[in-house]
Amino acid sequence: MASVSESAAVSGRTRRSEFGIELAGDRAASRARAARHSSIVRALRAALPLSALGVAGLYTLMILKSTGWGVGLPSLDIPTIIAENLAMENPHYEGFNKDGGRYWVTAKKAMQDVKNLSVINLDAITGELSDAEKKKTKLTAIRGTFNNKANILELFDSIDIAGDNGLKAHLTRATIRTKENVITSDQPVVVMMEAGNVKANQLTVRQKTKEYIFTDKVRTTLSAQDATGAPPPVDGAQQKPALPFGNSKEAINIVSQRLDVNDAEKSAVFTGSVKATQGVAWLTSPELAVTYEGSAASGTEAKPEAGPGQPGKVKRVVAKNPVVLSQGEGQQAASQSADFDALQQKAVLEGDVVLTEAPDKRATGDRAEIDQAGGTVLLTGTSVVLTQGSNELRGRRLFFNQTNGKMQLTGNGEGGNSRIKARFSETGGKTAPAAKEPVAAKGMSLGGNFKTDPNAPVDVDADRLDVDDPAKEAVFTGSVRAKQGDFVLQSAELKATYTGSSAIGVSGKTQAGQGSAKLTRLKANKNVVVTSADGQKATGDWADFDTKANTVTLGGNVIMTQGKNVVRGTKLVIDMTTGESIIPSEGTTSATAPMHSGEDGDSTGTIVKSGRPSATFYPSDIKEKSGKAVEKAGAGWQARETPSPKP
User: Tell me: the pLDDT tens digits for 493-536?
Assistant: First the structure.
């Protein structure tokens, strides 16, 4: 029997089966290769850390050598990179608004704020804001911050803002919301415009709506619009007084707590204890509204369509209740409202108008109209009263021309309101001499029925009063009635002369050195009638009342009556201190003649003639006492011929 055996390895070769599969006995070579690979890996694991350690040691030795070995190791400041130390040179930020406006900001240097990554600190800032109309506002500041997330620019220290419209501002701090075009400041600001300048402690500017809001101790100066002023008057002409407030020829200084300027509506409203000063006049009011034409800040870029007015020119100033306007030399006007038209040079005061002038002049009414161009003042109301000391005028319409010093007082032409009233308490002299015969000439003395108190006031009522203050003359017309005590004088016209000044200055110059008006003489014309308390009456063509001498002289066709008794002559002199009346005679002949009464055919009287004067007495009313004298019993009427002076 035969057997077969195979060797597992022959001469280093691997024996394979007939299917090509390596048999287990042939894996020796693979194991050898794997063992070699493992050895290399183990060697590298040890070599690499050692190499790194060696490099580090070598580097350390080099550092130690450079610093000095054996002296000691010094502490080294290792530089650290932080955000605060990172700076950008000449940064530029810009953006656009929804309304088409644009803004940009540049700086010399920008640094990131590590506490708020949206905030960037800026140095040496320059910026520009433009609105939808391409109007630009430029700004500069020493330093500031920009929040690029909120689009808020904060500026600090020496901030200057300038606009294309002429506006310039200097601030110490400002906040600019670039998206809204809004500038605010809570620190003192100075804003300069063509129309003037404003100083305040706080400011808000809304570029889109053209609003400027100043608050806290606002001080405003409105520039004079007509520096040249009015031309000088021609020879002989009187200079027209300036409008008391709001004229364009002088600057206006205004102090208030708040100022709201709306350049779109052309208005500026001052509120909070407003005091405005112009020249020698100053005005106080809780609110003062100014309207203007052009632009509040406009300068050289005024549009041609703005018309004849200059840019930023004040048109109107309106003050609200209570309004007090004061001027130099003791003049003051108070009212519930005041409206000053600067272009037309007119002013209107309304509501409880009170005009005063030192030392004692006062006029009241409902409305005062002041026309500077015409130099006139019109005071109207349900009751217009002008007082000066104890003198008083009453009516419903007082018109005063400041240019020529003339004044007119009237009613309204309706019933009793059509009459004007006057009272003169200061009538020249107070102690008139008690002369028994004021006229030293022969004539007829008619007793003491016209006696009155020379210190009593003179009351006058009429339809109209015209006063010429330079001429010191006042004329009453229209059924004039003057009364002093029981003495009454009536006429168609009464002319009064006085000293002092009767006019009240509400915007013109006060006539220095002139006191209250003091009545010196009254002269009546046309249909003069004088009556006493007991009904005694005298008529004439004219009458002259001398307030200093306290006498009244009637002239022309003089007729004096009491009951049926009549005295005629060409002149009658009444001494109101004694009450004695005298008709002077001009001839030397005297005679008597019988007279029949036209009223009672059975009664007869006696006509006594002494030159021109004549008298008619009725026996039933009188009785003869002695000589050539006749006396009405119980009445004190006497007819006495005064002998002619010896040659």
Answer: 999 888 877 665 544 444 445 566 777 888 999 889 988 877 78
Helix (H) or strand (E) holding 56: helix 28-67
Please say whether the beta carbons of 641 and 626 come within 8 A: no
φ, ψ for residue 615, nearest 5 deg: -140, 150
DSSP-assigned letters across all residues of 123-185: EEEEEEEE-TT--EEEEEEEEEEEETTTTEEEEEEEEEEEETTS-EEEEEEEEEETTTTEEEE
- Residue 245 phi/psi, 5-degree rounding, is -160, 145
Q: What is the pLDDT of residues 403-440, one digit of tens each?
A: 888 999 998 765 556 799 998 876 554 454 444 444 44
Rounded CA-CA distance 546/428 in Å is 9
Burial of 335 (0-12, 13-18, 19+ CB in 10 A): buried
Query: CA 91 → CA 58, 123, 179, 188, distances in Å?
Result: 46, 10, 19, 29
pLDDT of residue 198: 92
| Cβ atoms < 10 Å from Cβ of 152 | 18
Alpha carbon 384 to its chain centroid, in Å, reads 24
pLDDT, residue 416, reads 54
Closest by CA to 560, choosing from 639, 481, 442, is 639
Does the pLDDT of residue 146 top 90, yes or no? no
For the chain, the distance separating the N- and C-terminal CA atoms, rounded to the nearest angstrom, is: 227
**Can you tell me the distance from the alpha carbon of 585 to that of 612, in angstroms, rounded to the nearest whole number?**
6
Residues 595 and 578: their CA atoms lie apart, in Å, by 32
- Separation of alpha carbons 543 and 527, rounded Å: 10
- Mean pLDDT over the full length of the chain: 74
3-state secondary structure 199-253: EECEEEEECCCCEEEEEEEEEEEECCCCCCCCCCCCCCCCCCCCCCCCCCCCCEE
The label of the residue with tokens 């580097």 reads 59
What letter does residue 118 receive in the DSSP assignment?
Answer: T
Whether the CB-CB separation of 161 and 176 falls below 8 Å is answered with no
